[in-house]
């Protein structure tokens, strides 16, 4: 089903790679304004390609990319490879060290209706357009999206474990995560990776905007190419693939923060009571704890006051969105339907790009934004399970936007992949 290919990665030249931690950057959709400004001070940091500045940022990135190639700042690896990427991390309140194992490769940019690559959440249109323009101008993938394949037998892990013993890079990133990159050049092993994925579907975990950018770019090039074959470089996308069956695959909750609402606190709470049991709480910093393990339960921090919300089970059937039961049962569907649509009057489509609505992973940051007056309220939610992600993907439906936060995030700067024909490894030559 899923066609993957090795890549001839573009990487920083050897002398620069000795200080790789100074060249890496967070992904475009998680890097903060403060982080960006600090990273921009280094003229060769990867942030200049992934989140370029200027009135025409995509053009700026394209010009800079050509400069880096000409100056030898980045050099293309001479051999195609599968790039093994391990991330070692801990979670708050837990002494266990996790290791998320995966590998980076090209994958064909399948349309959603082909049923090979499955998505699980909505995208924000403005962010997709930004990624299309950047890809169009640079013909370079600056960071890998995160995909999931299912292999209960862990066939590929032994090859990855062997490869990671001889790393190209070892560094600690902005998350406190230890990132390790290695490469497999052995043709027979690469062929084995291709064969294993050939029979599998892929679930898109993280990077929906970047993937949709590649998908739309592929469609654009197909229309313009009367001799389209499906093997051209523009058909492919850079992806980091991990196994759904691994216990080290972690999903953290993503909370919702609203700058303002057109209701008084009393009016808002009264409307909520039509659908939820609303219980005041003394300590806002316990909101994430009082909802753990409880279905359709949320924390609300409103103008400095804390509440626990629990949906009245008898109203759940009122959800009339045209989605399967697997999606209706999700906490975030309940939140977006009853709080955003029914209570606040923001319809489903408008929620996708609603001004003043932000998505915040850090619970303390949610409370701080409300306390500082920057926001009116925060809605605290539980995490989504891997089983729920699988069920939604296979139902053919999607979750509300920003439903999952696969942790840790991959980083940008270890490698870049080109979709220029003369810099691309095609399916015909991948394992020759």
Would you mind describing this structure in some detail?
The chain contains 15 helices and 21 strands. It has helices at residues 14-17, 33-40, 47-50, 57-71, 125-138, 157-163, 187-198, 208-224, 265-272, 287-290, 325-328, 331-343, 348-351, 363-371, 386-395, and strands at 4-5, 10-12, 74-76, 82-89, 98-108, 117-118, 140-141, 145-149, 169-172, 178-184, 202-206, 236-243, 250-252, 255-258, 276-281, 297-302, 305-311, 357-360, 377-380, 405-407, 417-418. It is globular and about 65 Å long. It folds into 2 domains: 4-250 and 407-429, Alpha-Beta Complex (Conserved hypothetical protein from pyrococcus furiosus pfu- 392566-001, ParB domain); 254-382, Conserved hypothetical protein from pyrococcus furiosus pfu- 392566-001, domain 2 (2-Layer Sandwich), CATH 3.30.1760. The strands form 5 sheets. Strands 1, 4, 5, 6, 8, 9, 10, 11 and 12 form a 9-stranded mixed beta sheet that branches. The chain is α+β, with helices and mostly antiparallel strands. The protein starts with a strand and ends in a 14-residue tail after the last strand. Strand 4 (82-89) and strand 5 (98-108) form a beta hairpin.
């Amino acid at each position: 089903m899923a066609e993957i290919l090795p890549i001839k990665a573009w990487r920083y030249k050897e002398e620069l790679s000795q200080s790789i931690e100074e060249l890496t950057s967070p992904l475009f959709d998680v890097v903060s304004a403060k982080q960006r400004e600090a990273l921009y001070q280094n003229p060769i940091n990867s942030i200049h390609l992934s989140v370029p500045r200027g009135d025409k940022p995509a053009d700026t990135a394209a010009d800079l990319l050509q400069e880096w190639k000409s100056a030898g700042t980045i050099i293309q690896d001479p051999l195609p490879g599968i790039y093994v990427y391990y991330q070692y991390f801990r979670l708050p309140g837990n002494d266990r060290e996790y290791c998320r194992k995966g590998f980076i490769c090209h994958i064909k940019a399948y349309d959603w209706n082909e049923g090979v690559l499955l998505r699980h959440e909505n995208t924000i249109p403005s962010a997709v357009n930004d990624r299309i323009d950047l890809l169009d101008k640079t013909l370079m993938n600056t960071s890998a999206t995160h995909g999931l394949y299912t292999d209960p037998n862990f066939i590929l892990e032994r090859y990855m474990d062997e490869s990671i013993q001889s790393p190209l890079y070892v560094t600690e990133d902005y998350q406190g995560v230890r990132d390790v990159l290695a490469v497999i050049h052995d043709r027979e092993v690469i062929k084995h990776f291709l064969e294993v994925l050939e029979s599998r579907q892929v679930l898109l975990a993280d990077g929906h905007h970047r993937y949709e950018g590649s998908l739309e770019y592929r469609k654009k090039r197909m229309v313009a190419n009367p001799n389209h074959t499906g093997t051209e470089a523009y058909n492919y996308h850079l992806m980091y693939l991990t196994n759904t069956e691994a216990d080290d695959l972690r999903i953290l909750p993503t909370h919702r923060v609203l700058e303002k609402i057109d209701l008084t606190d009393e009016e808002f709470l009264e409307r909520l009571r039509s659908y939820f049991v609303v219980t005041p709480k003394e300590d806002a910093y316990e909101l994430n704890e009082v909802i753990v393990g409880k279905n359709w339960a949320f924390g609300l921090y409103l103008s400095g006051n804390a509440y626990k919300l629990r949906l009245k089970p008898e109203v759940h059937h009122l959800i009339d969105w045209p989605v399967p039961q697997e999606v209706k049962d999700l906490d975030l569907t309940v939140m977006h339907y009853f709080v955003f649509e029914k209570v606040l009057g923001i319809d489903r489509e408008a929620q996708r790009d609603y001004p003043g609505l932000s998505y915040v992973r850090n619970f303390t940051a949610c409370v701080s934004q409300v306390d500082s007056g920057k926001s009116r309220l925060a809605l605290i939610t539980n995490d989504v399970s891997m089983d729920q992600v699988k069920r939604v993907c296979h139902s053919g439906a999607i979750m509300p936007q920003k439903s999952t936060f696969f942790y840790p995030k991959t980083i940008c700067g270890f490698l870049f992949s080109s979709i220029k024909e003369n810099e691309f490894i095609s399916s015909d030559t991948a394992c020759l």
